[in-house]
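It is worth pausing here to work through a concrete case rather than discussing structure prediction in the abstract. The textbook approach is simple: state the sequence, then state the predicted structure, then interpret. We follow exactly that order.
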Amino acid sequence: MNVTVDEDKCCGAGQCVLIAPEVFDQRDEDGIVILLDARPPQERHAAVAEAAAVCPAAAIDLTDRA
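Step two, the predicted structure:
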């Protein structure tokens, strides 16, 4: 799994950080997403997929690892 985020789309809701804190964080000044791990291990895939699904701004994109 490859994870990318679109900071321009991010609204700072923070759901991704609550669901997958090992993969996502937020900037202190504005709450915009910070991607900590663009290729998370298999055991985190379910949480990352959930975070992407609940993102209100659809700022998280997931692709299969090549």
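Step three, interpretation. The helical segments are 15-19, 45-54. Residues 45-54 form the longest helix (10 residues).
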